[in-house]
Amino acid sequence: MTTEPYPTAGVQDKDARNSDTLARDKVGDDAEMQRILHRETHSSRAGVAGLAAALVIAVCVYALLESAVRAIGQPPWLIDPQTAAERLIALPQGISLLLLGSIGGVVTMVGLFFFLNAVLPGRRARHILHDARTAVVVDDEVMASALARRARIAANVGQEQVMVVVSRNLVVVNVRPTSGIPVQPEAVQAAVQEELDNMGLSPDLNIRVNVAASGVIGA
């Protein structure tokens, strides 16, 4: 009597399909998480884009209305389009240099505002904490408060004697020591670095400790 082997091919194919599905779901979840983190750490450009579109639409509508008024033989609301074009061609004649410079400065500032909003990353004052189960975004002010408390303990000074500034890639710790009690910058930096390591920030931050030359009188 012969026995047939156990049909495992179908089971293996099903397991492989399940593994592929789980892998695709994980990739999709990771991509969605990255989009959420990017939205939380970067400012939206929708407002600036809407403002630019509104300005362009307003100028176009006004030019269209002035052209329509001219076409039906009515006086212009502000300035005739043909007269405006002739004055633009004749610049800088017919206008004072001070007024022309002022208009040019305003136009330059407006253009620079929209240009910088378009090219700069627009990062918010936030950092991402590494966590295996969820995404955590923390404000830089909250981080600065925690780091200042740790630096104050390491320096053995009062709360008002430590100020911490957190930027994208740098933590600046400013310490004013108490008169007669020296402060070791290495100890303060080590304490702040340990606190940052416990937070698990992304990206990693450099630390700079500044100890003031003059101290304050202790209570």
| Nearest-integer average pLDDT | 76
Q: Measured on Cα atoms, how large is the radius of gyration?
A: 32 Å
- Termini separation comes to 99 Å
Please tell me the total number of domains. 2
DSSP summary, beta strand count = 6
- Looking across the biggest beta sheet, what order are the strands in? 2-1-5
Instruction: Just give the CATH class of the largest domain.
Output: Alpha Beta
What profile does the largest beta sheet have? 3 strands, antiparallel
CATH architecture name of the largest domain: 2-Layer Sandwich
Description:
The chain contains six helices and six strands; from the N terminus they run ααααββαββαββ. With 219 residues, the chain is of the alpha+beta class. Helix 5 (140-155) runs antiparallel to helix 6 (185-199). The termini are far apart. The relative contact order is 0.08.
